[in-house]
Amino acid sequence: MDTDDIVKITHEENQQKSSGQIHFIRNLESSTDNTRTNKFLKTSEKNNWMNLMLRYIFAIIIALIAFWLYLILTHILGPGLPTYVIFYPAVIIVALIAGLGPGILATIISVMLAGIWILPPVGQFSISSTIDQVGAVLFTGFGILISGVSELYRRNRNKAAAYDKEKALRETIRDKEFLADILDQSSQPFAIAYPNGRLGLFNPAFEQLTGYTREELQNIDWPELTPIKWRRVDKQILEEVYNTGQPIRYEKEYIRKDGSRLPVELLMNIALDKEGNPAYYYSFFTDITNRKQSEDLLRESEEKYRNIIETANEGILMTDPSAIITFANSKMAEMLGYSIKELLGLDSLTLIDETEIERENQRIDDRKKGVKGEYELKFHKKNNEILWVHGSVSSIYNNVGKHIGNLTMYTDINDRKKSEEALNNSQKLLHDLINGFPYPIFVKDTEGRFLTTNNKFDELFGFKNEELKGKTDYDIVTKELAESYRISDQKVLEEEKPVRIEDERDLIDGPHTFIANKFPIYDIKGKTYGVGSISTDITERKLLEEQMKITMEELKRSNDELERFAYVSSHDLQEPLRMVTLYSQLLEKRYKESLDDDAEDFIEYIVEGAQRMRQLIEDLLEYSRVNSQAKEFEDVNTEEVLDSVLMNLSISIIEYNVTISHENLPTIFADKNQISQIFQNLIINAIKFHGQKPPKIDVSAKNNGKEWIFAVADNGIGIKSEHQKQIFEVFKRLHTRKEYPGTGIGLSIIQKIVHHHGGQIWVESEPGKGSTFYFTIPNKCN
User: Fold this and answer.
1) How far does the chain reach from its first CA to its final CA, in angstroms?
2) Percentage with pLDDT > 70 across the chain
């Protein structure tokens, strides 16, 4: 058995081993050494016969060389050399190197060469001499003996070499078994991949990582396990590993059998073949799902808190122990008017008002001791404006507990400070106003205790504000009076609406009468917390009211007498005027032929003047009767009243081609005859003062919640603005009697009627664009 047979047998023995380790070794050998061993064995088997032939050819060549050397030595030394002297070393060499068969062949060839070319007769194989025959037999026996001994020596040598090789192989296999056991039992996934895309060695942890079975992985190209977006990264990493020869650690994703993506970390390395080309790549894998989730959670948390910090309504500053700014959020930069870049590295003390520096230095010392705190601070903005803030500070420590800085949240309280200042100013102003008020003012709580009083109260009642605080009415007035005050206070608190009471008090300078207006006082939440009172001293007003009452009674009596006088005078004056008119007309009729033209004109003037005087007296009489002959108010349908007026004026309406329109008019509480008189006088005026176009009159009314507002609009000649108040005066005319007849008292009568009803009257007009007369009649409830 030769060396190749021993190697083959050893390999077959190793292939027969079982268990998970041997299976793992088989994979390893099939992926690396087995490839080369099998190739060698196949080559050896193929060249076995060629090897054998070479060994026998080697024997023939050595025998021929020995024969050639014998001839050379005979030529040099002459005849007489022993026949087999050169052939003995040749046979020994062949036997030692080529073994038994080639040694025997060399022996036979040597005998034949000697018998043909050396021993006589030369040229034919014939050994005639007994000595030569004995020599040939001895040489042949020696050759066979030496060949056999050499064969035994060669075989023992080969066995020793085979044993050493097997021992080395066993040690290699044991090492591989140990490595395979480590990899097979390891929870660290491991795999070998070839440049052609096939997977070689991999452990069960890799199977578990990918979710595939061993058989499935053996039929998968390893790039298929990688998502497309990561394949370019893989390619770059493989190139870098090849170029540097150094392992590289990187992260990627794998596609598991169920289609899910698995984040992994690889430690990639490479093995090169003899030519320096990639033989295979091997990697250790780490499932980083939990780490990625933690990183994602951390990232989300950081992003969340970063967003909270960046979007916070409060400004945030981080400073080191020396008060140097190391972080500022956008809100803080906005509050101070700086950019974040400008704030970083800035000494925070340079931003603080100089009046705050000493206190801030004390706070810095306190922070080093871990003292938390809240405080108000005054900053200077970039434009040097003042910024008031409320600060809340916490100390920051590293892992070993060393103070490394401070985190402070600042709230802009500028508006609050301005409000406080405004409130203080407002309170001072209110206090000054209250004290400057000429009426006594006080405020009590819900229990009747005085909270504050003004100077006038102190002056009138002989108390000081400080003395009254906390006291009640029972401490300063009689029990009966205090109880009456308490009842009115309780009414204000219960009904939550003002109460007006009249209070008579005997003061130092005599009796006084006050009107006390008590009202509830509310806090910012709308809850009643006290009663306020403003009292008005009406002592003088009371006296004036009494005097006024007497005066009004006298005035009423005088007006009644005047109205009676006007009525009687107007009635009595009409008789002489009728006599003047009658006798003037008789004089004209009887003596017309005797009178000249001037006399006739004079008589005409007398008659016209008397008639005009009679009209004035009648209008004056009507004006005086507005109040004296007014009827009790009642519900009046103004639409019916207007229809009646239009009926009375139908001749004039037809004569002047008047167009009158009106809306649905309301029912009001009034004197029907006087409302009729208002409509009639206003429509007559609209017809009288018409322009070139036929008169158009519109009557409307609307209610504003308190009263009805009537409007009578026309398209007449209009009234200048400076005359719009004068036209309501008695006997006030804007035109001559020749232009427009009348006494000028009609609008005065209308105004008096409207005032009698508690309303107002006015006109809006532009010359040439008509006029609109408005008058109001209060609602019945008013």
Assistant:
1) 142
2) 78
